[in-house]
Backbone:
């Protein structure tokens, strides 16, 4: 097992100086802005950015078309639902009219039957009173 030896100040200073020299050399070795390799990289980056912008524009266009198509489909669905709802309401209103007419006929029939029963009852009552020989006040014997 190796024993850890702490670096002294001189070693640390020399390492820092070497690092600074290496950084300076890398900076000096960097190509200039008018170097053909740098210009080629810039042109390549510009082409990539332009292609990305075109793709994004196409993507946005497709998205807008999709949204417009979905909105048209939704409007058509809603119109169809409204038409079906209106037909159902008209059918329900017609059925309600038929039921009301049937109910009115039934009530009219019941009232007519009730009136007929009352007339028969009144006739029987009048006949009974006539047989007895006296008429109650308010009744006239026929």
Residues:
């Amino acid at each position: 097992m190796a024993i850890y030896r702490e670096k002294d100040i001189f070693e640390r200073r020399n390492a820092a100086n070497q690092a600074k020299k290496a950084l300076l050399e890398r900076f000096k070795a960097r190509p200039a802005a008018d170097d053909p390799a740098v210009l080629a990289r810039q042109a390549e980056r510009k082409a990539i950015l332009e292609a990305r912008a075109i793709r994004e524009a196409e993507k946005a266009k497709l998205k807008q078309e999709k949204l417009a198509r979905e909105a048209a489909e939704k409007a058509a669905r809603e119109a169809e639902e409204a038409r079906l709802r209106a037909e159902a309401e008209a059918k329900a209103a017609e059925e309600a009219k038929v039921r009301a007419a049937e109910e009115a006929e039934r009530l009219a029939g019941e009232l007519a039957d009730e009136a007929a029963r009352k007339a028969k009852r009144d006739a029987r009552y009048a006949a009974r009173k006539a047989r007895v020989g006296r008429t109650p006040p308010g009744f006239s014997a026929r």
Observations:
- Residues 38 and 46 are 12 Å apart (CA to CA).
